[in-house]
């Protein structure tokens, strides 16, 4: 019973810190995108059960020539500003990055070596927001 109480107190402390530093908390974050027609992205899924300002996402890349040419994935906010940019190594099949919680964003898959745009993918994050 003490272990359970300790875990609850630790989780409460994490929530309080996240809310005070990040402004709000998202519980059960979701990531939605139409990957059926994507030549780069096979699957997108949140990596954790809660998020503060950003949702950590694991992207599984397809085994396609287009996906193998991706060297950078950039997360672009609705207002056109870059949220995060992540380097993709040759042969890498999964990439973890953050997207802003509760917003539509565009994932820009590109080849930074030859400045080629490979694909844009619109992504929506959701979940239960706790102010």
What does this structure look like?
The chain has 131 residues and is of the alpha+beta class. It has helices at 2-22, 65-68, and strands spanning 25-33, 41-46, 50-51, 54-61, 72-76, 82-87, 94-100, 104-111, 116-130. Strands 3-1-9-8-5-6 form a 6-stranded antiparallel β-sheet. The protein has a 3-stranded antiparallel β-sheet with strand order 2-4-7, with no helix packed on it. β5 and β6 (82-87) form a beta hairpin. The longest helix is centred in the first third of the chain and has 21 residues, at 2-22. It is elongated. The model is unreliable at 18-22 (pLDDT under 50).
Q: Notable features of this structure?
A:
131 residues; Immunoglobulin-like; six-stranded antiparallel β-sheet; 9 strands; elongated
């Amino acid at each position: 019973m003490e272990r359970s109480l300790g875990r609850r107190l630790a989780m409460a402390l994490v929530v309080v810190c996240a809310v005070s530093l990040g402004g709000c908390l998202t519980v059960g974050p979701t990531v939605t995108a139409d990957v059926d027609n994507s030549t780069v992205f096979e699957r997108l899924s949140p990596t954790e059960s809660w998020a503060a300002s950003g949702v950590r996402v694991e992207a599984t890349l397809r085994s396609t020539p287009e996906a193998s040419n991706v060297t950078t994935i950039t997360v672009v906010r609705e207002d056109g500003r870059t949220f995060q940019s992540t380097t993709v190594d040759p042969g890498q099949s999964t990439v973890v990055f953050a997207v802003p919680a509760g917003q539509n964003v565009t994932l820009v898959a590109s080849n930074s070596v030859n400045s080629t745009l490979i694909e844009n993918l619109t992504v929506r994050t959701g979940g239960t927001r706790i102010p």
